[in-house]
């Protein structure tokens, strides 16, 4: 007999666990089913983001940044250190400790909010019945008034470069190298490829990134991507654009790659290969034939603007539906759906979801790029300002990058803000808030920004929209 709930959430990643907690806060009897198992072989909540994505990658990025600064950037401050070394095992162990802290934190939050965790693989059947197969082979059944599908996403595997967990790896494998690879190949110059490529480059690896597209970071604003590419080149990241890989053959401890640059074939030999060509919705085995839930041509669950599927009482959120595959987007959808189920208003504005790449320099943006505005025929004006003219950035010795503000030419409404530079992952929130409140470049320009701060670059870029920046020639 089925265990009865008001809400059953499938998936305990940033979308699912947040939806479950919010539903429980609203007085709904809630269960959350998840199949993830940690490195210790035990169930671990938090999904890809917490276990093998956002959180562990940031831990390694921070560790590698400290080591890189010690070797290359501290001398200017009068700080010197001889024979600096890094223990990769300790670094990875710190990452694992942080992951365990947060997965345990979600378990505590579930307990505090009376969310029932169920560990195993879930399949949705007709009439909102969820059948769960445990890792030990046991079977159970839940039924609910509402089911929220939050199954997340999985790395896309190339047919000629199958993951073996050691030599050819996905993002999870690249977080757990036992030593610094001499030569690391990366297929894909997206968020994962750049972040993890940066980690191992800072630690001493020779990193070559092969990107099939002709443009670098095509999703970002072209001016910002250009600045970022220049900085990455300075750091020694070898990024080859228009490089389409056709073969990856493991020979002993090496991977032999073949790629074409549009003119001829080239070969590349690396010690480890990270395949980071994107992710796809994790819908395999999620839906029984009688579930009634439909998938689109890309294997994502079809939903309306409020995350409803075509089946009454069944919702879907996060990476397994349309929109950007970002943890914070999934979390907000989870909250919105829980509140809609409870009879409250709930909405997520996909036009103001911020993007961040945690490289050095960081890259962040929200809204339209200049290219998109041109293609859509929207009249606009632009203003930019370099961090090199910001006192705080100079004091920090992090003067690379700029902030670019795009506003409507007639109404001055903020259309997009794009940044590359120090800590822009934090600075972008000001732009998001402004856009959510339908603010203008003038609003940003009129707000007092503390001095000296990095945020002054946002202030000056907004002033530059009308050619009245104070600290640069207009």
UniProtKB/TrEMBL annotation:
Residue intervals of the Pyridine nucleotide-disulphide oxidoreductase dimerisation domain: 353-462
InterPro entries given in the database record: Class-I_Pyr_Nuc-Dis_Oxidored (IPR050151), FAD/NAD-bd_sf (IPR036188), FAD/NAD-binding_dom (IPR023753), FAD/NAD-linked_Rdtase_dimer_sf (IPR016156), Lipoamide_DH (IPR006258), Pyr_nuc-diS_OxRdtase (IPR001100), Pyr_nucl-diS_OxRdtase_dimer (IPR004099), Pyr_OxRdtase_I_AS (IPR012999)
Keywords per UniProt: Cytoplasm, Disulfide bond, FAD, Flavoprotein, NAD, Oxidoreductase, Redox-active center
The EC number(s) this enzyme carries: 1.8.1.4
Keyword Lyase: no
Superkingdom, taxonomy of origin: Bacteria
Co-factor(s): FAD
Gene Ontology terms for molecular function: dihydrolipoyl dehydrogenase (NADH) activity
Pfam families, per database record: Pyr_redox_2, Pyr_redox_dim
UniProt subcellular location: Cytoplasm
Domain called FAD/NAD(P)-binding: residue spans: 5-334
Cofactor note: Binds 1 FAD per subunit.
Chief location of this protein within or outside the cell: cytoplasm
Catalytic activity: N(6)-[(R)-dihydrolipoyl]-L-lysyl-[protein] + NAD(+) = N(6)-[(R)-lipoyl]-L-lysyl-[protein] + NADH + H(+)
Further remark: The active site is a redox-active disulfide bond.
Family the entry assigns: Belongs to the class-I pyridine nucleotide-disulfide oxidoreductase family.
Descriptive protein name: Dihydrolipoyl dehydrogenase
Protein source organism: Coralloluteibacterium thermophilum
